[in-house]
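Input/output pair, single chain:
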Amino acid sequence: MIRTVDAQYETIALELRDGVLIVTLNRPESLNAFTITMADELEHLFRAVNDDDDVNAVVVTGSGRAFCAGMDLTTDGNVFGLDETLEPTLHDMGDLQDPIIARGVRDTGGRVTLAVFDCLKPVIAAVNGPAVGIGATLTLSTDARLASTAARFGFVFGRLGITPEAASTWFLTRIVGLDTALDLVYSADILDAADAADIGLVRSVHSPDELLDAALALAHRFTRGRSRVATALTRQMMYRNALLDHPAEAHRIDSLAMFYTSIGDGREGVQAFREKRKPQFKGRVSTDLPDFYTDWIEQ
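Output:
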């Protein structure tokens, strides 16, 4: 079995605490500014964690006084790591795994948020300080965003003459609505934690010394006494089925998921309910997802 907590990374630190993997962006000397290396490491982590049955949920936070101050703009050449010798077309983007496209054209933040989207574990952002640019859009792919009173959010792309990234035009509109999303990206204003909570960007606001504990408590609330397999399927069903054109399409996936969970952990759940005891779910995400899952997400 993969143990993600044992992996060695340059820009992120890992701690497994009672089934919750705490991922800390760890470049405090530069306010955890985002780099190509950090993108590679986060993408790798969020794909690897799916096969780590010791991890029930993931909490992402920042080291020091910032969450992430955005892209590191001090690097030489194209600071976003893109190959300026290329002239990519829409047709070229049909294969995101093409090595030339993957390394020379694809937005680095989007590689990370798509990995988070595909994650089979609940993911919570504990935003401890400024979250600007990719620091803000990185959080949008998580299931819940908790903020410290010291947190600040800025979708500041317009100030740099670039567009929103990290698939944020997909995520942000679903979180705060189109009107508010447009206001955030057009104005490029910096929001404090209270304002972010008012518009629904963050779930709750906490004092700095209580933020991580609150995020861990939420992670346990989401996962304790729950089937890992059912939780993994539920996460993907909620995100993917909401985008379908007709509820009958969701019904097809619901039916398969219900069928296989009912003969898996669901059998234990029903028996425990009848016997008035806590269930002992044994399904493993790494090995026990039903066969239809891969075909479904690759459609």
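The radius of gyration is 20 Å. The longest helix spans residues 247-262.
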